[in-house]
């Protein structure tokens, strides 16, 4: 089997104008970035009278080193739906350079279910993340300059909450001291960097409905507090206009194609363990406006990405999904059942049965908490046995949920036809979509609702700093915002070592902060960090470029 990049490079892409024509995008809305990428002008959303298509969310079980293949399934499902004659557009997140060069894995899918040009998508793409980083760091520069130039707002340098960012895994930058070297070089203070996808500006861009909304949200960003504990915003620093200028093109979604030339919109990319984990609202709305069906995904397991997609993104944007696809693999479920990674290829029904509760809990959350139709997509591996697949099917049937085998990695859209047919069937069902909590409760109530209803925790413990922050944020008028949980992706709990479907645990929230521009409260649990580090052997070591410009080693 050739590598992902070899498959992508051997595929003849359609010109982006042809892809746009397939999607029903008139040329006046198209801003080309070469022959195979383009941005779509936002005016299409306002000027199109076309009825919105049905929204399909692809999510997954709790991630494991065995892999689940969520993006691959998302792309293959869209290609499968196209093969059965459906007008479909796929909407995905953009990859961060951090994981691309760190732990091997991009965000373009895999095998014969990919979006292309995969090298461009995984490396720089159309520059959206660089624009976000520039806007983030402009705000940081204006903040420190304000203090240097006399500090008319009375900002307390010890209570600055805004950090600089870079789209790279660089642990050396987590905590820094800057402004050294004498008065002309600024005010010395403790500082730090986040990875760009953890910047609030990424969340703002992904939740903004248009350019005016973007500017308003940017203006609301809180960068720190005064000596008398009043919040200071980007608007008070008069930075919002210039930040919007940097982001005006980045706000436009990017059009590319799958290997089978299905139109794909790739835009925005907040991490799901430290942010809300979904592509932009604008990209999702654009896909729904262009297709009878829009297929999108949310990051990591359903307890993170799907929860935030449903409780934050759908609430903010007024979206109502028609169906949910839960991706799982037999290998990953056996790992949840206690099988070592090097023994996952052997049939083990006992371990599979022990791991099944993880899948079933995620499915039950979708059907019972959020009240949405769901299908389980088993991303099939050659080592999966018929007995193992039958066991998964029987367990899911007990919840009234069907299982469809997904073989899109090796067969492309052909391997996604069975899944596509079941998804189309589910989309015709009526549903009573509900949130896991209402906004009217306290911050503590909302955290508890997520922890108890979605994670199945016994309760929540707020550290003293988090309790104080909850009281302060409520007093400042932020008590009615939704909550974005920053939690490990490897467990339902806040302990990454608790695999499967753990019970009898309590979630500990160590701190709270408000993302006033994005419009949610971030609850930090465990040791979640906003700046990852590189592994011992970074994926970057394998990447190279030949004399003819062809990139190798990129997955």
Number of strands: 25
Major β-sheet profile: 12 strands, mixed
Structural class by sheet pairing and helices: alpha/beta
Radius of gyration: 23 Å
List the helices and strands and how they pair.
Blueprint (H helix, E strand, L loop, with lengths): L3 H7 L5 H8 L6 E3 L5 E3 L2 H5 L6 E7 L9 H14 L4 E5 L4 H5 L7 E2 L2 E4 L1 H5 L5 H21 L6 E6 L3 E3 L9 E3 L10 E3 L1 E3 L4 H8 L3 H10 L1 E5 L4 E3 L6 H8 L6 E5 L4 E4 L14 H10 L2 E5 L4 H16 L5 E6 L1 H7 L12 H21 L4 E6 L6 H12 L5 E4 L1 H4 L5 H11 L15 H13 L3 E4 L1 H12 L7 E4 L19 E10 L4 E6 L18 E2 L5 E2 L3
Parallel strand pairs: 3-16, 3-17, 4-15, 4-16, 8-11, 17-18, 18-19, 20-22, 21-23
Antiparallel strand pairs: 1-2, 2-14, 5-6, 6-14, 7-12, 9-10, 12-13, 14-15, 22-23, 24-25
Give your account of this protein's structure.
- The chain is of the alpha/beta class.
- The chain is 35% helix and 19% strand.
- The protein contains 19 helices and 25 strands.
- The strands form 6 sheets. Strands 1, 2, 3, 4, 5, 6, 14, 15, 16, 17, 18 and 19 form a 12-stranded mixed sheet that branches. The protein has a 4-stranded mixed sheet with strand order 20-22-23-21.
- Helix 7 (128-148) crosses helix 8.
- The longest helix has 21 residues, at 128-148.
- It is globular.
- The relative contact order is 0.16.
- The mean pLDDT is 95.
